[in-house]
Amino acid sequence: MDLGLRGRTAIVCAASKGLGRACAEALAAEGVDLVLNARTIEALEQTAAEIAATHGVLVRTVAGDIAEAAVRDAILAACPAPDILVNNAGGPPPGKLKSYSADDWGKALDGNLRAPAAMLAAVLDGMAERGFGRVVNITSSVVRHPIDVQGLSAAARAGLHGLVSTLVRDHVGRNVTINNILPGPFATDRLISNFTFRAKQEGISPEAALAARKAELPAKRFGDPLEVGRLCAYLCSTHAGYISGQSILIDGGAHPQP
Ligand code: NAP
Question: CA-to-CA distance for 18 and 195, rounded, in angstroms?
Answer without folding.
Answer: 16
